Amino acid sequence: MRAVDSNLQAHLDTGATTLATCWRITRRDGLVLGFTDHDRALTFDGTMFLPDTGAVGSALSSSADLAADNTEIEGALSTSALSGDDLAAGRYDSAEVEIFRVNWAAPAQRLLLKKGVIGEVKREGEAFRAELRGLSHALEQPVGRVYQRLCDVNVGSAKCGVDLEQAAFKTSGAVTALRDAQSFAASGFSSFEDGWFAHGLLTWTSGANAGLKAHVKTQTQSGVISLWLPAGAAIDIGDAFTVTAGCDKRFDTCRSKFSNASNFRGFPFMPGNDFAVSYPLKGEKNTGGKLK
After folding, report:
1. Could you tell me the strand order of the sheet in which 110-124 lies?
2. Handedness of CA 169, 172, 175, 176 (dihedral sign)
């Protein structure tokens, strides 16, 4: 059972309360922001909770089982508190959220109601709506190995073992021409064949997207790059980046492109649906699977 501060409990028992809700968001880059549905800023635990966004939350729900508890927070976008560009760029993806019920007349009297992370974020004009996922949502994520033909780890990870810092698997470049919101021409690819960096990871090192990462959809030797999703902010000529080689997780790619077949983490020879529905045909070598 959740313990309630005695002073807060005494305040609740009066029947005439001065309560507000506060949300503290900690992004993965360490930035901490505070919001409240009160009409004045509140401060506690070193965080100032601002009313600028007009943030409001839906009803909180919890269950005794392991189902993920979801709720929402919605409010207005502002350049000083929570910008639409940062939302679009994914800077709030998986950010940690703490929800407090606070006596705004005495902020030391408060109760932590819920902790979770930000899930899906939607922008509706000059407003935003963010899904808050309870901590139990992590139990829904796959853990351990997956029995499948494709590799189940990311290229360059410790289990993969490929060093993506090698010159053969990494290059730097800059945007030389714009095509649309998620494709552009760039320098730095003349010594690499078409598709070498497809499925790779591009990291912006300058420009409005500096520090953000994007997944490469296609790449040509002439330097035409297409991303799976538009960049968070507008791409501009001269924006610099680094990009590492991608892997489609097939055994042939692991063996021929990375010379890493010994670390392949898939099961390329597992039977598929075609084997399950197969039957003997006249003229074939119906040996029952024997090699002879």
Report:
1. 42-44, 47-50, 32-36, 19-26, 96-103, 110-124, 127-134, 70-76, 56-57
2. negative
Residues 6+ apart with CB under 8 A from 127: 74, 75, 76, 77
Among 58, 55, 60, CA closest to 37: 55
Q: What is the pLDDT of residues 161-175, one digit of tens each?
A: 999 999 999 999 999
Is the per-residue pLDDT at 275 higher than 90? no
Query: Model confidence over 197-209: pLDDT tens digits?
Result: 999 999 999 998 9
- Local confidence band at 66 (pLDDT 50, 70, 90 cut-offs): very low
Strands (E) in the chain, as ranges, are 19-26, 32-36, 42-44, 47-50, 56-57, 70-76, 96-103, 110-124, 127-134, 170-180, 183-186, 201-204, 213-219, 224-227, 240-244
The H or E element containing residue 87 is helix 84-88
